[in-house]
Amino acid sequence: MSTATTPAPAAVTTAPGRNRPRLLRWWPAAVLVLLIVAPYSALPVPGLLDGPLGSPGSLQLLATCLLFGALATGYDLLLGRTGLLSFGHALYFATGSYATNMFLLEAGLPFGVAAVLGLCSGTALALVLGSVSLRVTGIGFSMVTLAFAQAGSILVSRNPGGLTGGEEGRAAPAELLPSWLVGIDHTANLYWIALAYLVLTLGVVRWAVRSPTGRVWEGIKENERRVEVLGLKPYGFKLTAFVLAGALAAAGGLVHLLLTGGSTPQTTTSDFTLSLLVMVVLGGSGTRWGPMVGGILYTWADHRLGDLAGSGAVADLPAVLRVPLSQPLFLLGVLFVAVVHLLPGGLARLPSRLRRTREEHR
């Protein structure tokens, strides 16, 4: 005769624990809603922002943070997903900005048409230069992309035909931009555009990584020779990642053009790409949210530490403290070294490390 066993009462009590992760999955949507309604808020955020949350100055800083969070996420398609260390990613960002500006100023095209052509220009340049750069691998690839970036930066600084404005850059023509994108009263609209760019980038990267092509990228990063043995040609897959990342960067250049009101030569330099590299490593390369968090934190710190360095509180300190604290790059460097040393894998690994530490102490 068989006997039936009844479930232990403890099994029932574990149900809430199993449901809890399902609820936590909705946190990105909650954060998105909060970001959407931020311009309507007058909530003061002392220490983080100079003014209320919905003030033009705060929205400008938040929009810049969102922009670079998205840009770092797109760059991680190369570094964290495919294992390609490119030093020329800034070139496609700058192309999106400069090309759009030139189509507005020189051709007098409507903003919508100029924006599409600027995006196409950045994507086409990524296709051409990527097809050349990817003929070599490893450090050779990095050096070729660096050479292209340096050539682009020199070209912009030489101001050929007066098209780039040289070292001063070129302001966007306010009269050719839509009225709802011009002026301090419309800062909220620019903020929402930056937020939309972030959401678009996260969606595109998520879709690409989960696709069959994304799985091949992962294989290339782990062992490119093994991918070749399986009968696949890594070159085409790497070029796809390169062009997609370049297109996202060009779109970011359009947003930057609107936020800053012009195109600046600083966005063409290899130092700009190195900043993206720091953002990705700071947040966590190859993770879903890490590059975005790293980009937002780095951009916020870059702006806020600059204000701190020039404040009276630092000026009154002894020289041994005042000199290093008055250098924003020094402060950023210390922050970066501390994160890399204390949090291997970036900030994205922090929750898992905390959970593991808590379990070890139980």
Helix content: 55-70%
What is the typical, i.e. mean, pLDDT? Answer: 86
The low-confidence parts are: 1-20
Please tally the β strands and state the result.
2
Q: Number of helical runs?
A: 16
> Which structural class is indicated by helix and strand composition?
mainly alpha
Query: Sheet bearing the most strands, described?
Result: 2 strands, antiparallel
Strand content: under 5%
Order the strands across the largest sheet as they lie in space.
1-2
Q: Cα-atom Rg, whole angstroms?
A: 23 Å
Shape: globular
Q: Kindly, what is the distance between the CA atoms of the first and last residues, rounded to a whole number of angstroms?
A: 43 Å
Order of helices and strands: HHHHHHHEHHHEHHHHHH
List the keywords.
disordered N terminus; single chain; mainly alpha; 362 residues; two-stranded antiparallel ribbon
Kindly describe this structure:
A two-stranded antiparallel sheet has the order 1-2. The chain starts with 8 loop residues before the first helix and ends with a helix. 69% of the residues lie in helices and 1% in strands. The chain is mainly alpha-helical and 362 residues long.
Provide a concise account of the structure shown:
This protein is mostly helical.
Element layout with pairings:
Blueprint: H1 9-13, H2 15-24, H3 27-37, H4 56-79, H5 90-105, H6 111-133, H7 139-158, E1 170-171, H8 187-210, H9 212-229, H10 234-260, E2 262-263, H11 270-283, H12 290-309, H13 312-315, H14 319-325, H15 328-342, H16 350-360
Antiparallel strand pairs: 1-2
